[in-house]
Structures are given as C-alpha cells and as structure tokens.
Write a structure and sequence with these properties.
Chains A, B: It comes from Pararobbsia alpina. Chains A, B: Pfam families: Pterin_4a. 2 copies of one chain form a homodimer. Chain A is of the alpha+beta class. Chain A has helices at residues 7-15, 38-55, 82-94, and strands at residues 21-22, 29-34, 60-64, 67-72.
C-alpha cells in the first residue's frame, strides 16, 4: 500500500517542481503548459503517456490545441504520493518545448 | 469564413452520430468514451490527433486512465460547423474498441 507524502516531503518536493500547485479541494498537484502548436502539445502528451504506462501511473489531463492542463494524484492513496512526484519530474524533463506555463 | 450549422443540419447530423450531445451553455457537441485500459484510450486519442492535424481542426478533450471526454466546436465560428461533424464522424469510426460510452 502506497502512502501519502508527509508535510516535509511535500515542502521539499514543491521546491524542486516549479509551477506545480496544490489543487483546490483535493490532494493533487496541477500545472498548465502552453506549446507552439498542437503538434508540440500532443508530442509532449505522447511522451508522458508512454512513461505513464511504464510507471503504471497515469495523469488526468485536458488538452485544447496548444494547451495542456495536467493533474496528478494517486487514486489508490486518495492523495499525493511518490508516484506523482516521479511522474511530475519526468513531465518537467520533457516540457522543455513549452513556450510558457 | 465557415458558418454555423443550420437547425436542419443539426437535426440530421445528430441522428447519425449516436451519443453526441449538445453541450450545456455553449454551441458544441460532447461525448464520453470508456475503453479497456489506458493503452486503448490513448491509442484512440492518437488516431484522432493525427486526423485533427490533417483537418486542421482540433478537439477539446480530457483523459483519465481509460476514459476520454471529447468536446467539439469551431473557435472561428463560435459554434458548431461542418468541421466538427467531419471530426465526429472520424471519431465514431475509430471508437470501435470503446467498451461503453
């Protein structure tokens, strides 16, 4: 059983993940990304999709044209866990092409 | 300039697109899809993404694990146009693997 992040883990984690904000009303993290066009946005999503499958941990996300909104939370723990941090780190790594968040 | 669908066009179109419902509060169409797993859901999205790029007409969509929520509307016309119908028809064609909508 995976457990929720402690207050200390959250603090240190958020410091290293710029732009990721706690979601209002639930224990989750959220970030918005904007790319040059749909090709760049969906390419970004595809890289994340492949990684998510490998981690067996999937994002909740919304896309319209060049915008991608991502929410991370762990269903099994009803909140934020190390799995979300691992996926957020990967997302940061592949978000280099984002024109702004 | 692309124009919005007429009342008659909407009626005949909705009859041939089962499950597509007018969105409350805006001139758009919406449908929910559920697949066996994330692989099937994202594969479905990928086929639509490639088609959307070809049509230069993109969906608004939300995905979490095996669920995909799609909204179609034409920004340029502030409402439903023939482009949305064309994309909806393609989506229907590739949604065969959906376990239920």
């Amino acid at each position: 059983m995976i457990t929720k992040l402690t207050a200390e883990e959250r603090k240190s984690t958020l410091a290293e993940l710029p732009g990721w904000e706690p979601t209002v009303g639930r224990d989750a993290l959220h970030k918005s990304f904007k790319f040059e066009d749909f090709n760049a946005a969906f390419g970004f999503m595809t890289r994340i999709a492949i990684k998510a499958q490998e981690l067996n941990h999937h994002p909740e996300w919304f896309n319209v044209y060049n915008q991608v909104e991502i929410t991370l939370s762990t269903h099994e723990a009803s909140g934020l866990t190390q799995r979300d941090i691992e996926l957020a780190r990967f997302i940061e790594k592949v978000s280099a092409g984002a024109t702004r968040s």
